[in-house]
């Protein structure tokens, strides 16, 4: 029993000391555009390779890719206009917009139940959790039993059109930029 108590106390101390990743006081369920990055545990390059400046997805990368389609189809208020699967991480812009007009008829519409129960908007952390969970599950089912995401994710609240366009450019050019950065680093390190 003492071991369990100590374990629990250590977990509380570790969690208390963790730095919060989200902007304090910000409502992540409100209509906005968010730039997100999710990394694979230990930066395991498991989603494919970059060849000639383009990302070539393997079977696992295709699963991660398809789950972004699943996410925006699952939640009618979510649009993901651009994303990229990299060897060991993913980048995306996730838009939450209640006014997208992509609402699906509720199965409760015929029963007369309170439809407000089905209109809950998941905040960004829950959407990322849904993506990570369903992607992990599909990867495990495909035989990649040891797959793990890194804890949490990085997000950036997009504040204006200039920033939005810059991030789209960054995402679209990420494979080529990674190749160029690696060449630059090898040259500067004498390799």
Overview of this structure, please?
This protein is of the alpha+beta class and 191 residues long. It is built from four helices and six strands, in the order H-E-E-E-H-E-E-H-E-H. It has helices at residues 2-17, 59-74, 124-141, 161-188, and strands at 32-39, 48-51, 54-57, 78-85, 89-96, 154-158. The strands form two sheets. Strands 4-5-1-6 form a four-stranded antiparallel beta sheet, sandwiched between helices. A two-stranded antiparallel ribbon has the order 2-3. Strand 2 (48-51) and strand 3 (54-57) form a beta hairpin. Helix 2 (59-74) packs across helix 3 (124-141). The longest helix has 28 residues, at 161-188. Residues 1-19 and 103-117 have low confidence and may be disordered.
Radius of gyration over alpha carbons? 20 Å
Return the structural class: alpha+beta
Write down the overall mean pLDDT: 81
The proportion of residues forming helix, as a percent range, comes to 40-55%
Number of helices: 4
Major sheet strand order: 4-5-1-6
How big a fraction of the residues is strand?
15-25%
Overall spatial form? globular
Major β-sheet profile: 4 strands, antiparallel
Number of strands: 6
Report the uncertain regions: 1-19, 103-117
Give the SSE string.
Answer: HEEEHEEHEH
- For the termini, the CA-CA separation is 55 Å
Give the structure's gist in a few sentences.
The chain is α+β, with helices and mostly antiparallel strands and 191 residues long.
